[in-house]
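Batch job 17 of 40 flagged for manual review because the log was empty.
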Amino acid sequence: MSRCITPEDLLKDPSILLRKKGHDSSEGLRSFEGQVGAVVWEGSHFVTSPNMDHIWEPPRVSRITYMEDMRYGEHDPLQWPQPFIGSFCYLAAIRRRPDDLRAINRFFIAFYRLEDSDLLAQEGVLSGLYTLTPRLVSLAKNFVQNRVIAKSKEYESQDDAPKNDILLKLQPSILRTVNHLENLPMTRRKIKFLFAELQRYFLEFTAAFEYLTIYLPRIKGTMPAATAANKKLIGAFVQTAADADDLFRAGIPVWVIREAKWAGNDRVDSLCEVQKPQDYLCLDSAFLHFPVDYRDSLTSPNKYITFGRFARGFLSYGDAYNLRAYEAPIPQSTGSEQTSSTFKIGPRVATSREIRKSKQPYPIPQRQDFSEPVSVYLPPSQEAWASGLCKINTDAKRSLLVSRSMAQGGYILPNPEAFIGVTTSNKRELYITNWLKYRSALMYCLTESQGRCPLSSQLWRDLLRLPVDALPSTITQPAATASSSTSTRTSSKSSQRGEILQRIFENFDFHASGVAVNGHEHQVTWRGQALIKGQELDINLVREVLWELSELNFRFDLIALDHHLYRRTLKVEREGQILQSREDDILLCFAGGPLGTSPFLAHIANADIGIAAGDWMVRRAYIIYLRNAMRDWEGFDSAAKQCHEVDLFTRSSDILSFAEHQYLLFEVVLVRLFIQLFYDAFGRAPVIPRRLH
């Protein structure tokens, strides 16, 4: 019996791999044999390839994180072969970056390396914010139309195509990222990260489509096996004969890793040098900027899930109010408490003892009348939402025992009603101009978790009353200076207003992000139209501005309430699957759905087709999506069971067949429930959605 090969033997004499060189050469190489072979990992293993003439060094277990080029070094399937994982099999079919990339290449946008000249500087209160240039946005949109949407339709039209929803799952991330890059002012680093992720989505989508339509049929035998590898692909490392055979048949580059003890047992025709990642890749860690890492098995789907979650959450809105999911039991109706509707809504009722003990920690309503203000400047709402506001039950005992900070009834953006309650047209114009002046800076804050600062209506009004020509120089002052100023009752009113900006921006490290405060005036615009000082604002412009504010506030309110009430235990993520995120579920409630919709962007083109559309058949789908999202909330089941007007558990397909009067009643009851749940949680009425016409 021959002696077992040891790592020391193999490291000392790699030619052991060639013992069966040329064996059965007339039959050609099989999947577990090698054109080439090489010794790796100090002789403990060797690597062979049946369809490639070079050997990449296999990645080893280590700390994986983002590098300065927004990739994860040798652990990134976009630039280095990875251990094959069945649930992410399509990653082996990712295309390799061409050595001679040209603009005429149909995958140019997927491989292009972003430069500073590709960023379009945005004018505003803050400098250092950019969007992607129209040229690259156009290339990205063309790729979406010609490759993503077209290929999705092509795949769906194939009756014999394997059932797989990976293409559908990737589309929302692709379209939303293009939307953000075109419209959201961001820092250089954030734009470069999102552009790199967009390229990842493009390449993964292409790989998934080609794997399903070309390589998988070869593996299953419904198409002839490949005669050679497609050298334009990244490929994968495998450790089993079955995986090696599948990729070999498919024509995907494959490298087989085996222990030293098996050296010399199978045919290997030649030796080659191992290609090292440090000779090809950027390996400088960017963990300080992108704090996510992975240290577990390289063959676990969790590697990709970890970074996928981080990337998807990079521009997710999150919970601006920093509330955790509600865990207290929902009370049962006793029949002794009267509400403004036929069912009981909301979380636990505070006892009189609790209220006395905690000295009124519940929100004290600042107003009892939530009826709609009337103004030609305010875009109309839908009747269900207006009537829902009038029926809010403001009983203090019904409100959740939340922190005192929540009792302020703050808003993420100014309440549109603040622009209507002014006494003169000059003041309204001042409010509109100031909002548009600070809009890009405040929207940038919303994309940063430390910048989401709910402010009371009074503080927002103070900001909107600032002199139009005021320069926000105070926002770069240390936070301590601002806090001492605000605590001084003798501060001038103008100083107090300036300190509002300090409160909004005090958590930002401007130096680290490359953002600075503009020390000069800039032109205030709305959708490309300049606002001229002293000229009366067009009523349509005002209505558009207030529609956007209404829509964005409504989105943020809905997302905040969902974070507060969502029962996270209802949905369990399975390893290896890209599941639709909760934010995607919520974004379905807004015009456009997750395909291109963002919490941060409300397009005027969608102003009349959303959840507040004038046509009940148009808004019906969005109301159904809202109901579906609310079904996952704490308190919904209890409240719905106590509702005797309509069945809030009605199947979506049945709602679609409702007559108009049936649907309108369903809508009124559901909207009333939403509004009451929001009031019970946050101590104020939600900002309701509107339509433009």
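Reviewer: the log was empty due to a logging misconfiguration, but the result itself is present. Residues 7-281 form one domain. Unflagging and moving on to job 18.
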